[in-house]
Design brief:
Helix content: 40-55%
Largest sheet: 4 strands, antiparallel
Number of domains: 1
Structural class: alpha+beta
Order of helices and strands: EEEEHH
Number of strands: 4
Strand content: 15-25%
Radius of gyration: 16 Å
Oligomer: single chain
Length: 67
């Protein structure tokens, strides 16, 4: 299981993925659907890493300004 402020995701022994987002219905994916999602995210990993890095950098700058 993995959790952060946006979601909680878990996977069981049969490969069923459960994605919980606060305030929304749970999304349950079978192994094939979960693999398709993983493949899509992996294909776009450089974009995701870049955007995540940009956000972390802005947050660090904001924290410096607040101090």
């Amino acid at each position: 299981m993995r959790s952060n402020r946006a979601f909680t995701v878990s996977i069981d022994q049969q490969g069923i993925v459960n994605l919980d987002v606060p305030g929304r219905d749970a999304l349950i994916l079978g192994p094939e659907e979960a693999f398709d999602l993983l493949d899509f995210l992996f294909t776009h990993r450089n974009l995701l890493a870049s955007r995540s890095g940009d956000i972390a950098e802005r947050q660090a700058e904001t924290q410096k300004e607040c101090k």
